[in-house]
Specification:
The protein has 473 residues and is α+β, with helices and mostly antiparallel strands. It is 40% helix and 19% strand. It has 3 domains: 285 residues, no CATH class; 117 residues, no CATH class; 59 residues, Arc Repressor Mutant, subunit A (Orthogonal Bundle). Strand 12, helix 3 and strand 13 form a beta-alpha-beta unit. It binds zinc ion (ZN).
Length: 473
């Protein structure tokens, strides 16, 4: 299997790419429009500087060479959602090129080449309604800024494709240049798939699949296309280069059109826009704004902090989780693995159940660190810690205060006392046998041993109950 991906991501700039209309989703149809984005003759586009900055940031995040001088081109085609009958894009010289992205797949690092990242405008949207015989056109999306990220054909499995797409999504969120709302179509991808015999150096003929609107659909589409092509070849047929439409509901792809070549689009330099020139100082400034990215974090969590790849990914992909995790680890009060367990179990359950973000709760890195520290020091048991956690969330009190107020230090902590009694019983087999043979005074001896083991801190009444219960088992 040989796969290349073209990812389109809508940028979350305030205004559109070539006019000052609002860049927003879900508003009344044809209200966020002006003569420029409606493609009226005689209007002139003006490039939104932020779009260039956002794309350069993504270029840095994907280790690309940034072309400080580049231009924009017209890609000509007709469709009812494109009133100008051309899309302004970048053909020969993109803003960013020759990069790569390292992703983790099944615990192994995989490098996927990035051919280019260019800027372009989105088209409008066709609306179909059963109540109406034709199609309706909404131009609100015309001129919404996009970046297109084109990968090298380096992907060899659907799992690699998924890891690549998920990494791109989390990077877009980390550098905050896209809303990444899949359901609103803010990330879409075209999938190129070909097959070749194992060991063969030459690529087979590829088919492009459009209309892939989710990462899971991409995985299904790739698997389907992989099988389809092998079946065609094994039956003695040949693969035609074509564009196919993925129908996720049917789980099948259908021929859309024979593949168009670049010349069919009659690309030529956009005469209404100036050459883009980004000065080197600006390029450097934008590079310095890139934080530690999720794929780099995953590697660090696995290699340096000993987390599993699954846990590392679940934490790194979410900025809130990773910020909490990183701060707790920096405080150095408790083990990274314990912090990870808390974040992925109790904290994840709470945020999922309530729909709240961690930052909307009274839980701070300080409080979480203090709480885990008390468990690791043996002051409170895990089950008490869960109670303390709930009290922190509802009252915002500090864990040490809660432990004191609730009298949770081990002397009345069931979990702790049970472990202690278990140990004492294991070390005093003779007394246990005596007790079972009717020598009831052995009980007093065993309780005394437990009290001794707890250095006198245990509650004798509770200890006695526990010991009797254990002896009867
Ligand atoms: Zn406009």
């Amino acid at each position: 299997m040989v796969v290349g991906l073209e990812v389109h991501a809508e940028l979350n700039t305030k205004s559109k790419i070539y006019c000052s209309c609002r860049n927003a989703f879900g508003l009344e149809v044809n209200t966020q429009v002006c003569p420029v984005c409606m493609g009226m003759p005689g209007t002139l586009p003006t490039l939104n500087e932020k779009v260039v900055e956002y794309a350069v940031k993504m270029g840095h995040a994907m280790n690309c060479k940034i072309n400080s001088v580049c231009k924009q081109d017209r890609k000509n085609y007709f469709y009812p959602d494109l009133p100008k009958a051309y899309q302004i894009s970048q053909a020969e010289v993109p803003l960013c090129e020759n990069g790569y992205l390292d992703v983790m797949v099944d615990g192994e690092e995989k490098r996927i080449g990035v051919t280019r990242i260019h800027i372009e405008e989105d088209a409008g949207k066709l609306l179909h309604d059963d109540a109406f015989a034709g199609s309706l056109v909404d131009l609100n999306r015309c001129g919404v800024p996009l970046i297109e990220i084109v990968s090298e054909p380096d992907i060899r499995s659907s799992a690699e494709a998924k890891a690549y797409l998920e990494t791109i999504k989390s990077i877009l969120q980390y550098i905050n240049i896209s809303d990444c709302k899949m359901q609103e179509g803010s990330i879409r991808c075209d999938v190129n798939v070909s097959v070749r015999e194992k060991g063969s150096k030459e690529f087979g003929t590829r088919c492009e699949m459009k209309n892939v609107n989710s990462f899971s659909a991409a995985v299904r589409g790739i698997e389907y296309e992989f099988k389809r092509q092998i079946e065609v070849l094994e039956a003695g047929g040949t693969i035609m280069q074509e564009t196919r439409r993925w129908d996720d509901a049917k789980g099948m792809s259908f021929t859309m059109r024979s593949k168009e070549d670049a010349q069919d689009y009659r690309y030529f330099p956009e005469p209404d826009l100036l050459t883009i020139v980004v000065d080197e100082k600006k390029i450097q400034e934008l590079k310095e704004m890139i934080p530690e990215l999720p794929n780099i974090k995953i590697r660090r969590y696995v290699k340096e902090l000993g987390l599993s790849q699954v846990d590392a990914t679940l934490i790194a992909e979410d900025m809130e989780r990773s910020s909490l995790f990183d701060t707790c680890v920096e405080m150095g009060k408790c083990k990274p693995k314990s912090v990870s367990n808390w974040i992925l179990a109790d904290i994840a359950k709470f945020t999922n159940d309530t729909g709240k973000k961690i930052s909307e709760t009274p839980l701070t890195p300080q409080k979480l660190s203090d709480l885990i520290e008390q468990v690791e020091k043996g002051v409170i048991s895990n089950s008490s810690a869960k109670k303390v956690f709930q009290i922190i969330l509802s009252t915002g009190k500090a864990p040490l205060d809660i432990i004191k107020e609730e009298g949770m230090a081990q002397n009345s902590d069931m979990g702790f006392l049970e472990n202690l009694a278990k140990e004492v019983l294991a070390n005093n087999e003779k007394s246990v046998t005596d007790y079972k043979n009717g020598k009831t005074n052995a009980l007093g001896y065993l309780v005394g041993q437990c009290m001794k083991a707890s250095k006198g801190k245990a509650n004798p009444g509770i200890v006695k109950e526990i010991v009797i219960k254990m002896l009867s088992e």
